[in-house]
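Dear H.,

Thanks for agreeing to be a second pair of eyes. The structure we're designing against is below in token form, covering all 511 positions.
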């Protein structure tokens, strides 16, 4: 028999020995019964039982759940004073009362909003009725019976024995609530004891010397337990994909270009590539301009005088088979410092350096690094991303050499057999091609890169021989990484929303 104990009279939690003794006498026993016997809070008993459960096979516990209906605060108030409908019925005299007078009675107003509920329920139960006077538009409330049976009050006195429909109605009126009580049924285990003793976990030299190990009880080793996780760093998916691309370039005999110059001047980023100064890509809505220092010095090695003059003449008047752009080239525009918009700025520096080396030697360059553009941020675009670029400079290279090199490169990525090429326009390559590959998952061709042959207007002013041509191609790192690792929002790959657990658990990259 459970005995309810007032919180103010509750005793402190019993000791493990006291609980074990109670289990020894009454097992199997409910944790609720133990709480009642000790006069303490049920959670205190649960805590003691969990402590005992740490010792193997001493006790066995079984989870129990009991659901019962209990009176709400409003239900208890009705149990004391009667239902609202019964109270409204009692306010109506035997000869009736005008409705406005009924609503002004102190007992009626004391009910507040519940008076309206009581009036409606009394009408529904046909305890009272209203009579309208069409002449003066008044309403009189009359009793339709001399006595009533308050069934709701009777149901609240014994809610466990009423029908499901009545229970549902009382729950809807919030007079009853469901109370779920969780407890444990406790029984003796195979190793039950009244005195708990912690098992030894280590066999010491002293135990061997004095022979005490014979009387001691040792905890069994769990050889199937997992070891503690090793604290170690992890490569981000972008770094894994970047490493794979880098390895492919190295296997193809390419040399990596230095790309640690994030800040670039407009000359090497645009002008050296024969990109006109009025080109839309050079506007502030596409490019990040530096405020300090805003420009590069003309006295440094960044602006070779003779090369600078040749670039200016090519832009203004053409040359090398070109008529140029026919505008006044401005050195101050070329001096503006920016965050580089493509790694081709690095390629232009490397090709100029190559042109100064005599005699000319064929080269194969590549770069993989960050570039910056003033993009609108969304699920597939960021203002900072990685660009891959491959460059080959040699005598008399043709468009066929470019297509063959691209087939070899993408073959190593696992998609060389399905390449398609489409003519395109780039300011500093002619001819130019977009590269497409068939995506089996999407069942269509998707763009995988851009390519072309650098224009003579870019190469000849550098001093490269006339019969030297340069082929190049580029693609991003983020998009193939998102496809490889099933990420549909680039902000989950780069930036503050990156899940560090993802970086630790993502698989090895094999393209």
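And this is the sequence the design step returned. I haven't edited it by hand at all.
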């Amino acid at each position: 028999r459970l005995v309810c104990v007032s919180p103010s009279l509750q005793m402190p939690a019993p000791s493990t020995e006291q609980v074990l003794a109670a289990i020894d006498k009454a097992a199997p026993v409910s944790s609720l019964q133990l709480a009642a016997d000790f006069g303490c809070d049920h959670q205190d008993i649960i805590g003691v039982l969990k402590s005992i459960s740490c010792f193997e096979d001493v006790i066995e516990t079984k989870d129990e759940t009991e659901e019962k209906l209990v009176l709400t605060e409003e239900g208890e108030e009705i149990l004391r004073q009667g239902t609202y409908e019964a109270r409204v019925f009692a306010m109506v005299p035997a000869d009736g009362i005008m409705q406005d007078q009924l609503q002004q009675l102190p007992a009626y107003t004391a009910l507040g909003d519940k008076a309206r509920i009581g009036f409606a329920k009394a009408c529904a139960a046909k305890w009272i009725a209203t009579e309208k006077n069409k002449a003066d538009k008044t309403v009189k409330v009359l009793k339709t019976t001399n006595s009533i049976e308050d069934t709701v009050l009777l149901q609240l006195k014994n809610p466990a024995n009423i029908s499901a429909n009545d229970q549902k109605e009382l729950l809807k009126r919030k007079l009853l609530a469901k109370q779920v009580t969780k407890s444990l049924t406790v029984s003796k285990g195979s190793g039950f004891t009244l005195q708990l003793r912690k098992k030894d976990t280590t066999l010491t030299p002293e135990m061997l010397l004095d022979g005490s190990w014979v009387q001691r009880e040792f905890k069994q080793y769990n050889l199937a337990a997992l070891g503690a996780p090793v604290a170690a760093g992890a490569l981000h998916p972008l770094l894994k994909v970047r490493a794979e691309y880098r390895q492919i370039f190295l296997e193809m005999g390419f040399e990596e270009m230095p790309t640690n110059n994030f800040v670039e001047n407009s000359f090497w980023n645009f002008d050296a590539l024969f990109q006109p100064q009025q080109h839309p890509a050079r506007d502030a809505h596409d490019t990040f301009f530096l405020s300090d220092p805003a420009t590069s010095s003309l006295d440094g090695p960044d602006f070779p005088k003779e090369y600078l003059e040749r670039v200016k003449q090519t832009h203004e008047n053409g040359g090398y088979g070109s008529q140029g752009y026919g505008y006044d080239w401005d050195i101050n525009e070329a001096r503006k410092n920016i965050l580089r918009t493509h790694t081709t700025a690095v390629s232009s520096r490397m090709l100029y350096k190559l042109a100064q080396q005599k005699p000319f030697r064929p080269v194969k360059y590549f770069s993989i690094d960050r570039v910056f553009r003033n993009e609108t941020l969304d699920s597939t675009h960021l203002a900072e991303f990685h660009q891959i670029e491959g460059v080959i400079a040699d005598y008399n290279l043709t468009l066929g050499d470019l297509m063959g090199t691209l087939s070899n490169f993408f073959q190593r990525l696992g998609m060389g057999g399905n390449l398609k090429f489409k003519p395109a326009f780039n300011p500093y390559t002619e001819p130019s091609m977009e590269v497409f590959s068939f995506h089996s998952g999407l069942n269509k061709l998707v763009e995988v890169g851009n390519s072309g042959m650098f224009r003579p207007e870019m190469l000849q002013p550098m001093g490269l021989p006339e019969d030297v041509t340069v082929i190049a191609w580029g693609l991003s790192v983020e998009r193939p990484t998102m496809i490889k690792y099933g990420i549909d929002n680039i902000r989950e790959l780069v930036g503050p929303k990156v899940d560090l657990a993802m970086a630790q658990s993502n698989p090895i990259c094999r393209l």
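Two observations from my side: The radius of gyration is 43 Å. The longest strand covers residues 59-71.

Warmly,
E.
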